[in-house]
Amino acid sequence: MSHETILIQVGLADKPRKSRWPARLDLLQSITGLFLALFMWGHMTLVASILWSKDAMWTIARFFEGYFIFGKGYPWLVSCIVGFIILVVVAHALMAVRKFPINYRQWRVIHAHAKMMKHEDSTLWVWQAYTGFLLFFLASAHLYQMIIWPQNIGPYVSSYRVWSEGVWPLYLVMLLAVELHACIGLYRLTVKWGWPNLSRETLRKVKWGLTAFFLVLGFLSLVAYMKIGYEHRTRVGERYTPTWVVEKERGAQQG
Amino acid sequence: MRAIDNNTPQQSTRQHRHLRFSILRYDPNDSASVPCMQEYQIEEAEGMTLFIALNEIREHQDPTLQFDFVCRAGICGSCAMMINGRPHLACRTLTRDLPDEVTLAPLPFFELIGDLSVNTGKWMRGMNERLQTWLHVQEREVDLHRIEERMDPDIADQIYELDRCIECGCCVAACGTAQMRKDFVGAVGMGKIARFRLDPRDIRTDDDYYELIGDDTGVFGCMSLLACHDVCPKTLPLQSQIAFLRRKMATLGLSG
């Protein structure tokens, strides 16, 4: 048994020098949060490629399978990315849960506090905690699907999942939770670390602007997938073939 | 109880409002006492502060009402209380800035003495002892002939800015973290560390300050809700000071 373990057990771990771990954990919480928020914005932008065209969405989905490097798609590459995201999510959740109200007394007092204070940043924190709690479950369900069936990402197969497999309610709630959580979290990071050094009024305006933008983008994308899923509901399992491949095949047949 | 003060002379032709105060009454030293809201009404006067209104209630309506005050000028920090749910100094609150109905309660977090009176001093003393908020200087022989060391005026101004803290407790009462975790040092504690860290006479290093605030009861416990910054009656730059301390203490975490 190590000397350090004995000191931790008897409550003398911080003697004679205080542990540096609280600092590292605080940094880890911020870094994982920053990474996940930026990842979510990138993810949402790529998902929204369906609003541009089915070909664009197909191209992006194949790109992450390495199709344009190896000449063939390897969906397990997507599983690797999802696996990494799961690790970051777990690390972030572990760090963030330290700040949650952990018993009824704390839960009751923070609610009464936010209600009485009518202070925007305090109320936003309560929302951040709620949406974060919700994401424990919603993100887990989504990430599980993606790591097990990475091949099911594409203009048609994603739409089947959304419509025929009935996942759209999960995505709708997750969209609201994730965009609120990410934007509040990024705003909190800026005021927590003091960078960029802008007024909180300006930062809050930027935050709400970004929240609205990504919510609208996400909602339109979800509707687009639902529409495709509904239109193809009788052809579940059919995979999308990009326009240029169809034209090439047609040209070959005519030739 | 509802009491209406009819003694105020109507000297001014201007129509003054009737203010309704709903005040939390409770005596923790009386086992029979139960926390309840008690209503009072007074007529608003020109330039009336909440402190004046409370004194009028105590003088004319209810001599048992407990609240604290000393300086009446926003210097002593004794009269801090929850005014319509937010902490502020009664002596610095003009009734004209309040709605017709005002709810008053004692500051949370601190030991309640009775009604609106809390023992902020007891907690502040403990916090100051815990964070050693006094100047740590190099021990040296006193030489009365030696010229006192000069301090950069900009540094002196910055120290003075943070020294304006009156320990009223508003920042702690407004802090969501402190409401959940009673061992949190609050913005007042971190403001004091920031003050001594600035002082070139203080021999302590960041390693020493880390020992005082480098955990979840200190700077890493702060969730940056920033109500402390928004309610501070002395408008201290608490947001930037806490962010600065967090950066400095986090850097130590990386250096091992």
Architecture overview:
The complex is a heterodimer of chains A (255) and B (256). Chain A is mainly α and 255 residues long. Chain A has one domain (18-244): 3 helical TM bundles of succinate and fumarate reductases (Up-down Bundle). Chain A has helices spanning 3-9, 21-47, 54-63, 67-70, 76-97, 104-117, 120-148, 157-163, 168-193, 200-231, 243-254. In chain A, helix 5 packs antiparallel against helix 7 and helix 8 (157-163) crosses helix 10 (200-231). The longest helix of chain A has 32 residues, at 200-231. Chain A starts with a helix and ends with a helix. The mean pLDDT of chain A is 94. Chain B is α/β, with parallel strands linked by helices and 256 residues long. In chain B, 34% of the residues lie in helices and 15% in strands. Chain B contains 9 helices and 8 strands. In chain B, strand 4 and strand 5 form a beta hairpin. The longest helix of chain B has 18 residues, at 238-255. Chain B is elongated, with a radius of gyration of 22 Å. Chain A binds chain B through residues 14, 17-27, 98-99, 101, 106, 109-110, 113-119, 121-122, 125, 188, 191-194, 200, and chain B through 82, 85-86, 108, 174, 176, 179-181, 210-211, 214-216, 220, 222-227, 230, 239-240, 243-244, 246-247, 249-250, 252-254, 256.
